[in-house]
Amino acid sequence: MKFKVIHSVLLVVTIGALSGGSMAADYKQNPFTLVYEGAIAENVKGKVNIRTVTYQLNGLDISANVYTPANYDAGNKYPAVVVAHPNGGVKEQVAGLYAQRLAEQGYITIAADAAYQGASGGQPRNVDKPSHRIEDIHGMADFISQYAGVDTARLGLLGICGGAGYSLAAAQTDQRFKSIATVSMFNSGRVRRNGYVDSQLNTIQARLQQASVARAQEAAGGTVLYSGDANLTDEQIAKLPFDLYRQGYECYWKMHAHPNSTFKYTTSSLLDLMRFDATNQIELIDKPLLMIAGSKADSLYMTEDAFAKATGTKDKELFKIEGATHIESYWVPKYVNQAVEKLTHFYGKTL
Fold this sequence. Notes:
Number of helices: 12
Mean pLDDT: 92
Radius of gyration: 19 Å
Strand content: 15-25%
CATH class: Alpha Beta
Largest sheet: 9 strands, mixed
Structural class: alpha/beta
Distance between the termini: 24 Å
Shape: globular
């Protein structure tokens, strides 16, 4: 497959060093609009560098960041890892953090905004269909496999949250991925269908009806309807029933906010989401599999379910980060450090 790079820019910007969590989490203070602590603020020779790229996938412009290891030499060969971002997230947030940390360990990594989301193209905005998200992962593999210095025989996959569920689906058939890892896996189809912690089983048909009405309205040229978009007060957030939602608002709205990140998605997407399940055909995965989740994550049930069903591989491990919740695995240094250490060992062994 001929893959055309439409636009790529090597950004070299000199600014004052950023320090402190609030500075590092302010996209306006970073030339690459990265919002995670310790993010690259300028490309320095001999250190991990970041390159912004735009490529086409099925007629849409996809916006991505490629991280290269210290002392990167295009004439050498490096293992590479594709990183899929969480639902509602963008490449400048947790996907970028893990991509940068893995680049520090010697990997070429790529984190791209999903089609119809973030800085990538596609209309209407914030369509969230599993087939698109899975194709995004295949597309990142297409692009990074042709990147100078990448050893295609050593290509790994890392999915985070919703991106982890879609990574499990992509890895079922894409044999280019030699090993697969997940962090805080979120089975989007199961949650959109059954509710979080299977709490909305009695409203499935009503929500399918809403999605059908939304699809009909779109088809007739009417207003695009959205779900998941809520402007909550601090008091309302505190009353949310699950850690994932309470801490998610704190993380995405405050500590690591980015203007391209949003919880909303087209209501019509539910027609596709609610019939999807990340564990369907998961036994097709026959490659090494590492699944990481916080021991206190209220989403842990989804990782445990997928791990049990992944019977096609004998080389699999479930690693629990003691004391971590779902969202804390995104940014809390002591938990991220544990995850990265485990990932480094895993990819070092399997790639």
